[in-house]
Design a protein that fits this description.
CATH superfamily of the largest domain: Periplasmic binding protein-like II
Strand content: 5-15%
Shape: globular
CATH topology of the largest domain: D-Maltodextrin-Binding Protein, domain 2
Radius of gyration: 26 Å
Number of domains: 2
Length: 419
């Protein structure tokens, strides 16, 4: 080409067009690279964290240009931080509890309505039994992630050495505890510094003694804490406390700090959830058995505590469409099962089969056999009532002789909250 050959377009115009085209490509590339998703979660146990990290990695691989940041936190500090970040710096996705805990935020319009999303993805059918737990005033605000069962975890070697078997009735449980105590073993380990774990004792004794309908009326503030039926629960509970069957100075231990007493054989039983297993190395799992909370009243149907966890999109999230895309991916059969197995809990889809995990199959049977269920004290009642109640339970474990004073105080709180 001759140096004097003319371009069909003026050089300056050509250069300008090239520059604009390159800029457009850079903008498009930048937009892809800048797609980000921020997830805040308290599911920081080793197994569930690994499962979530894999799901996140798979999602990023299927969506080039998307970067997912997961902020992990321990359960207790998360309970405080979520009150702040939902208002001041909401992530795109936030894990949380369902029931009353969820409604405390939905009433303040802090979670996005997911009713349409659940219907469009048909997850409302796949997760039908758990939808009531994420519903407030007819609308769904969270995606159920898994179901947690509760009951007694026990050290098999300790039981075998003491010559005892998993009890089926309250009378048998007390006899077993007496035999263990006499042999120098703490019957019940527990950590009440975090308050919530102790609530299981109250919930189960109330369910086993007074039934589900009464329990939920109490949770809804429709029954006084000074009712004779509530006092009966405290009287039953006081017996093992006064006999020294619980770990001493329980309020100085967090719930996780109570687990080593069980795994090391210093204590025999822990009324808790699957966190007992997920907090221990896999090689220790075979020595940890499970049995349901025993029968108290023979004619009472077997009601259980079955807690549903969830995940939602904060109202102030920046990337709601991308968040919904991730939730749909997260809720697939494969990922739903993997996330549940990572936390030693049950999947939230009824169309998922568990065939390779004896422990999970046992828990699933435990859940299926329930004649009805509550969630958990601090999920079923008003958050302020729950806080007052759990502090009362903590005090009761230390000073059972103060039962009447504690119940009077809780009744004053109930009357104020549930006007």
């Amino acid at each position: 080409m001759s140096p004097h050959t003319r371009f069909p377009v003026k050089p300056l115009a050509w250069l300008r067009n090239m520059a604009l085209g390159a800029a457009a490509v850079l903008v498009m590339h930048g937009a892809m690279a800048q797609q980000s998703l921020v997830i805040n979660t308290d599911r920081s146990g080793t197994g569930q964290k690994a499962a979530l990290n894999k799901i996140v990695g798979d999602f990023e691989a299927q969506n080039p240009g998307v970067k997912v940041t997961v902020n992990y936190s321990d359960v207790e500090s998360y309970k405080t931080s979520i009150r702040n970040f939902l208002v001041t710096s909401p992530p795109d996705i936030a894990f949380w509890f369902t029931g009353a805990r969820m409604r405390a935020f939905t009433k303040r319009n802090l979670f996005e309505d997911l009713s349409g999303f659940l219907k469009e993805t048909k997850l409302n059918e796949a997760m039908k039994p758990f939808i009531p737990a994420v519903t407030d005033n007819g609308k769904q605000y969270m995606l159920p992630t898994n179901m947690t069962t509760w009951g007694f975890y026990y050290n098999k070697q300790v039981f075998e050495k003491a010559g005892v078997k998993p009890p089926e009735t309250w009378t048998e449980l007390m006899a077993t505890a007496g035999k263990l105590k006499a042999s120098g073993i703490v019957p019940f380990t527990i950590g009440t510094r975090d308050l919530w774990a102790n609530s299981l004792w109250f919930d189960y004794l109330d369910l086993r003694t007074n039934g589900l309908e009464f329990h939920m009326k109490l949770m809804d503030g429709k029954v006084p804490y000074t009712d004779a039926r509530v006092k009966k629960v405290f009287a039953l509970w006081a017996d093992p406390i006064k006999k020294g069957y619980f770990l001493e100075n329980a309020s100085s231990y967090g719930w996780q700090e109570g687990i080593p007493f069980l795994s090391q054989g210093k204590a025999a039983m822990y009324l808790l959830g699957p966190y007992v297993r997920t907090s221990l190395p896999a090689e220790m799992h075979s020595n940890i058995g499970f049995f349901p909370f025993p029968v108290v009243e023979a004619n009472m149907p077997r009601y259980e505590e079955l807690s549903v966890n969830g995940v939602g999109i904060p109202r102030g999230a920046k990337n709601k469409d991308l968040a919904k895309k991730f939730l749909a991916f997260f809720a697939s059969k494969e990922n739903n099962l993997a996330f549940a197995k990572g936390g030693a809990v049950l999947p939230s889809r009824v169309d998922v089969a568990i065939t390779d995990d004896p422990y999970a199959a046992e828990q699933f049977t435990h859940a299926k056999n329930a004649k009805g269920s509550s969630q958990f004290y601090d999920r079923d009642t008003d958050p302020d009532m729950a806080q007052a109640g759990m502090r009362g339970f903590q005090e009761f474990l230390q000073q059972p002789e103060r039962a009447d004073a504690i119940l009077e105080r809780l009744e004053t709180t109930r009357a104020r909250i549930f006007k």
